[in-house]
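Hi P.,

Sorry for the delay on this. The queue was packed all week, but I finally got your sequence through. Input first:
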Amino acid sequence: MRRSLLVPCLASRICFVAWLGVLGFLCSLTFGQEAQANAQPRHTYAIVNIQIAGDAEPALRSQIEAAILRGLKDAGMGRVSLTAVEDAARGKPELVGCVTTTCLEKLGRLVGATRFLLARVVTSGATYNVELEILASRDNKAGKQVASCTACTMSELGSLIGQRTRELVTARTAQVELSILSHPDRAEITLRRRGGDSAAAPEKVGKAPLKLSLAPGAYIVEARLPDHLPVQQVVELEDAGDVKSVELTLVRGTRDETPTTGRPFRWLKWGAAGAAGAIVATGAVFLVLDGNPNCNAGDEIDHGQCPAFYNTDTLGWGGIAGGLVVGGVSGWMFWRDARSARDVRGSEEARMSLRLVPTGRGAALSLEF
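Then the structure:
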């Protein structure tokens, strides 16, 4: 005799362990992604050239490269070795001796770097003059560090270069002061890093006038005020110690606008993914239980054999099929959210802004795209 018993199965130890396994997998996936995101370096530097002049030994080049890479690591930066850069540029003569912005962009795409370092060392006996330079690129300003070492050992020279490298790259990530004014006052100010995560919503930072301390880079500053048209402006923040100010003028008017975050499914997609895993796991448990004896304490036993068995194969295959369907829906939700976020970000950056610009005889309206 075969009996289909759903309740005993769900209450069994096997189901309980399966559910714990699914929950553990989902938690490890979520926290693992968060830890990976937090471990991402702020910038990735590539060594594009090491120029040595004087009576240096051939081994000095590799020792300088190792010292620079060690300094980048200590500063928490991503790093690409000179050897990797030379391998990537092999067979591409236009990238040899690369120093221009366009050339550095091409090289950066090949090696996965966003910023670029050049080292020059002049040697005379045990005296070393070192110059480290960050090359100017589209999102970064040039900078230099110079040091000299008299009667140095190779270990002392390596420590000096590593220290100067760390000082050079960390100075690029210090804070810059930004002052924001609006006309009229008390406009709501939002801020978003230009070229950052497409799914990141603009951050509300307060009402103008206000002052902020930000890392160097490009930002989109937007001002909003009731009964006025919103206006936004791109602000470039350079090196630490700079003080930058921006004034945003809002013009009276309204426009129809439906707020959107670009992520219509938000947490629903994660719920669907978790449900898919749980359904598949439950279906697998049903398949394992199918055909196993199912006798209670009061059931009649025939010659030591249990006459009742679980009949759960249909539930098992149905659960696996249902879980795959829900998993497919979850995948579609993830894809749809990613595409919607890209569309929203593109429309925001292409949005037209209206500004009132003072002139010698009065004022004029300026359209910004």
